[in-house]
Specification:
Blueprint lengths: L8 E4 L9 H16 L3 E4 L11 H14 L22 H13 L3 E4 L3 H13 L15 H9 L5 E4 L5 E6 L3 E6 L6 E4 L7 H11 L4 E5 L6 H10 L7 E5 L2 E2 L15 H6 L4 H10 L14 H7 L10 E2 L2 H14 L2 H12 L4 H11 L9 H9 L7 H7 L5 H12 L6 H15 L8 H8 L7 H8 L1 H17 L1
Parallel strand pairs: 1-2, 8-9, 10-11
Antiparallel strand pairs: 3-4, 4-7, 5-6
This protein binds one RNA strand through helix 4, strand 4, strand 6, strand 7 and helix 6.
Amino acid sequence: MTEVHPKVRVRFAPAPSGSLHVGNARSALFNWAYARHFDGAFVLRIEDTDASRATGAAMHDLMDVLRWLGLNWDEGPDVGGRFAPYRQSERFDLYRRAAEGLVRSGRAYHCYCTPEELDQRRKEAMAAGRPPGYDGRCRTLSDVDRAKLEGEGRPHALRFWVQEGATEFQDLVRGAVRFENNQIPDFVIVRSDGSPTYLLAAGHDDLAMEITHVIRGEDLLSATPRQLMLYEAMGFRNPPKFAHMPLIVGADRQPLSKRHGQTSVEHYRSEGFLPEAMVNYMALLGWSFGDGTTERFTREQLVEQFALEAVSHNPAAFDVPKLTALNGEYIRGLPVDELARRLTPFTGEVDDVLLLRVVPLVQERIAKLTEAAPMLRFFFTDEPPMDEAAVAKFLNADFVEALDGYLNALSSLGEWDHASIETAMRGVQEKLGLKKKTAFMPVRVAVTGSLISPPLFESLEILGREPSLARIRAGLDRAKTA
RNA sequence: GCUCCCAUCGUCCAGCGGUCUAGGAUCCCACCCUUUCAAGGUGGUGACACGGGUUCGAAUCCCGUUGGGAGCACCA
């Protein structure tokens, strides 16, 4: 009934340098979704070939954030797998052997140019208006010259010999892409210190790990022909398919960078965004749900609907207001106890039971988890900070009568619940003929310290009779002496 | 400079030759609801970059222009 096709195997292969960029996170998400959609394998491979950049701590942070996003992997440095190890720094022997093979078959050669020389020549070429790429001079070195350079003790790198012709491939999101090989200079595959470069290591591992689809950012589109040449030179006839995702840019259309102050997933995590909202929003950056209308969907729905053909070609601007709005929707959709649980890291040490009672009061008022604590602070402290502007406006001589009225009415209340409180306070409002809009403001300010607060009657009920009356009384005192 | 990629409301997407006086979301504005703030409801402003083709017919196909982005590293 179903046609037999090789099992889908995709990989997310980040360099563990610093935090997880949202662009990379989205690549991870799309790879994950693709793998899950086809019931394939999602591989996490750490590209730490550049020893100067990688640290173990960075790798752990990376995995931590991926887990937080809910992107679980089937093979990786921590869980192992059929093609272990999954850290490239532990696979150097494999790359060395592959490189030696390429030298033997004449597809790679020793290059004795130093980085300084190359840099110098590049600058000259640019200044003269010539292409800045490597000119291939070491490719044609005579044996005598080579022996001489060797004799000088010059270290050498290994360079891949780019053949004439053109390299073409079908990009799964962009369609046919073609590069003339003469536009591609010979490139380094092994550094003079013996370490492999990205092209060699990634190309080698994609073959070795039987990766079927390479899903990555558009910034790597022009690296693809080099990768393809490498596969061909290594004798591989069935290379992975490629799919390039549009880049994510900042609000100013410039590449999302530190200047925008918010490039890392960790940043959004600590800002109080929910992982499910983050995943949902990232999916919207360059992709849309099958019906073209649905914007809010679960990971499961994403997996079910995900298709590379539906990926957009345009760079997408990361729009924090939209992310925030979506996050608010997710927050409102959470069960109260779940929201309380998620709020815990942001509230500090507070009474769990009280928190649970108070959360419904702010659930539809916050768009980020970080916004709850300031709104709820007056519940958790006997002396909430007072907004002095609010105090000046409502705890003054003009409102002495009102405060006095509320205090009397509430003091003699039988049941201390929000319905009774409301009835009592509305009675005072009517009797004194107070304007509806501002009638309860003096009490709000006295009790919460702010012009803006959760619903007053419910707040008073939860705060409790004595604390509430005490705060109103204190407010009245201030009003009298103002 | 060269190569490649891209081009629909401010932003993210829908649209894959006629159903488009271009749809949804976000943002912004107004109104309703309302004890503040939100949430919710209703309505509104707002886009096919430009020029040529192809076609009975083009946002949709082709070419060019312009504009943006990426790459051209002993980074990945």
